[in-house]
Design goal:
Elements lengths: L1 H17 L10 E2 L6 E7 L8 E6 L7 E4 L12 E3 L6 E5 L8 E5 L9 E3 L12 E2 L6 E5 L8 E6 L2 E6 L1 E2 L2 E2 L5 E2 L9 E5 L8 E5 L3 E3 L1 E2 L2 E2 L17 E5 L8 E5 L10 E3 L1 E2 L2 E2 L5 E2 L6 E7 L8 E6 L6 E3 L1 E2 L2 E2 L5 E2 L8 E5 L6 E9 L6 E3 L5 E9 L2 E2 L5 E4 L4 E4 L8 E9 L3 E5 L4 E3 L4 H9 L6 E5 L7 E7 L3 E9 L4 E10 L2 E7 L12 E8 L4 E8 L5
Antiparallel strand pairs: 1-42, 2-3, 3-4, 4-5, 6-7, 7-8, 8-9, 10-11, 11-12, 12-15, 13-14, 16-17, 17-18, 19-20, 21-22, 22-23, 23-26, 24-25, 27-28, 28-29, 29-32, 30-31, 33-41, 34-40, 35-39, 36-37, 36-40, 38-39, 41-42, 43-44, 44-47, 45-46, 45-48, 48-49
Helix pairs in contact: 1-2
Length: 546
């Protein structure tokens, strides 16, 4: 009977919910710090399955990049980690060294003698001293695999400087960018990577005078060959790519507030003829928009568009109904503020769904898009039944692409395992970072149907050398313990002890004991223990001989 009631709930209430934006209009979470926040990004820093938040700030007092950890009960309101950036603006999470955890790039404009920096993640904790510093500044940063080799390269755009890309060579960024634009634009503040021509490699869109540098088989042109029609130049402070109308091609959204005046926002639709130069969609409202972000706020499968508005204006969401984006926003925040960054994320994991996309290789394509993005957590790639090692692919779970080092053979089966959410909260970078709660109640009821029926645990790769990812599922919220034991039954490493919500989670084990020392090769056991159940699986560590 319960299943029938849930189905009736979905039938009766889902259709009305799809016609409105299920966001509260006042923030349920506000930072304790007034930081003049710039960009906002989310990533699972500590590998506990919950999204943590990093924000950049223009406050010129040092420690200007703030990390808010997710405790499992929500984000902390005072950041427990502050990185020693004098100022920061561009910020981006990405696994630069392909070791399975999120590293963080930060930057501020070189006009103030600031440069791009990289903070490495070591076992679930970010370094507080940059491991790498570039030679350019940046007002926007973005990870993308420009040369199609399966690792993340870093794009940096800046005012008073040409757009640049730092190539990644086996987990190490080059000291100076080997690619720079040569077409003379030097007042840039936004960008996004996306495969605009669907040819299997990532192109780079840059703004304010927004334009696109096309990628030809791993080589980015230095003079942009796509521009919008006049008078839309000098309008691209925020750029985001997404398939708005479900035609299989990525469209380009533009935040139209670069001239310090209230202007409409734009959407350039893509087709087999290419990206249109005159936008078919122009918003009916005028605002000083900065960043824009796509996300499916009401769980109907279509990407909606959020815009952060500057100079004491409200932030807005344009609802997408069946592939048609409304011209006037049906949601706006109640408080007016000076907002810059905007991002979607499921902070409380109440809408997270596990997903496997099944694709087919053609022998040449290396770049693939997920069917749902932004993703929550990306987990693995399996080709013809064999999991790919982390060194053989990279990804951006927000932009929704995965780039493989080697093209799968023609006809091969490719499985992309990840999670996404149908209950996204909206984070906005205002004077104090804030977040608006998603209230899609019936969507949460649907989420309950999809919870796993029993405890399970596994790991990959197995056998492993440097590290392995431990994957486990819980049918409900409960207190658990996960630990590693050797063949004698001695506990080697306590991985986790505490309460976890129902759903799918993961941790990394790097072959270390509780004292942080590497253990020897051999057979070990992962044990997952709840109040009523204990399960274990063998795990094999094979250390390379030096």
């Amino acid at each position: 009977m319960k299943n029938y009631l849930i189905i009736i709930c979905l039938f009766v209430f889902f259709i009305p919910l799809y016609s409105q934006v299920p966001l509260e209009t006042t923030p349920f979470w506000v930072s304790d710090i007034s930081a003049y926040t710039c960009d906002i990004v989310f990533g699972d820093i500590d590998g506990d399955g919950d999204l943590d938040m990093a924000v950049s700030s223009e406050v010129p007092e040092g420690n200007a990049t703030y990390i808010y950890f997710n405790t499992g009960n929500g984000l902390e309101t005072y950041p427990s980690l502050m990185l020693p950036d004098v100022r920061s603006m561009g910020i981006a999470f990405g696994d630069v060294d392909n070791d399975g955890d999120m590293d963080l790039a930060t930057a501020y404009t070189r006009f103030f003698s600031q440069y791009v920096r990289l903070y490495l993640n070591r076992g679930g904790s970010l370094d507080t001293i940059p491991a790498w510093t570039g030679t350019t500044g940046a007002t926007w940063l973005g990870w993308g695999d420009v040369d199609c080799d399966g690792d993340l390269d870093l794009a940096a755009v800046d005012i008073f400087n040409n757009a640049s890309v730092y190539l990644n060579n086996n987990g190490v960024l080059e000291s100076s960018p080997s690619w720079q634009a040569t077409d003379g634009y030097s007042w840039d503040i936004a960008g996004t990577w996306f495969d605009v021509d669907d040819d299997g490699d990532l192109d780079l869109a840059v703004g304010m005078d927004y334009r696109i540098y096309f990628n030809n088989n791993g080589t980015l042109e230095t003079v942009a060959s796509w521009h919008p029609d006049a008078p839309l130049t000098n309008s691209g402070v925020g750029l985001a790519a997404g398939d708005v109308n479900h035609d299989g091609l990525l469209d380009l959204a533009v935040g139209g507030g670069a001239s310090n005046e209230d202007e409409p926002n734009f959407l350039h639709f893509n087709s087999v003829s290419g990206l249109e130069t005159t936008p078919s969609w122009v918003s009916g409202d005028n605002s000083m928009t900065w960043r824009v972000a796509f996300g499916d706020v009401n769980g109907d499968g279509y990407l909606d568009l959020a815009a952060a508005n500057y100079y004491g204006e409200v932030d807005v969401v344009y609802l997408n109904t069946g592939g048609i984006l409304e011209t006037n926003p049906s949601w706006n925040s109640t408080p007016t503020d000076t907002s810059y960054g905007v991002a979607w994320a499921d902070i409380d994991n109440d809408g997270v769904i596990n997903r496997t996309d099944t694709l087919t290789g053609d022998g040449t394509r290396k770049l693939f898009y997920l069917s749902h993005f932004p993703a929550h957590i990306f987990e693995s790639v399996i080709v013809d039944g064999s999991p790919l090692p982390l060194s053989d692919y990279c990804y951006d779970f927000v932009a929704g692409w995965v780039s493989l080092k080697n093209a799968p053979a023609n006809g091969s089966e490719i499985l992309m395992n990840y999670s996404y959410s149908i209950d996204l909260e909206l984070a906005v970078g205002s004077r104090s970072p804030s977040m608006y709660r998603n209230t899609n109640v019936c969507v949460r009821e649907e989420k309950n149907i999809l919870l796993p029926e029993a405890l399970s645990i596994k790991n990959y790769p197995n056998p492993f050398g440097d590290f392995t990812k431990i994957l486990f599922t819980l049918p409900q919220s409960e207190e658990i313990s996960i630990a590693i034991y050797d063949v004698t039954g001695r506990k080697v490493k306590q991985i986790y002890s505490g309460v976890k919500k129902g759903g799918k989670h993961n941790f990394l084990w790097r072959g270390e004991n509780n004292r942080g020392k590497k253990v020897g090769s051999g057979i070990y056991f992962i044990k997952l223990q709840s109040q009523n159940t204990t399960i274990s699986e063998p795990i094999i560590l094979i250390k390379e001989r030096r």
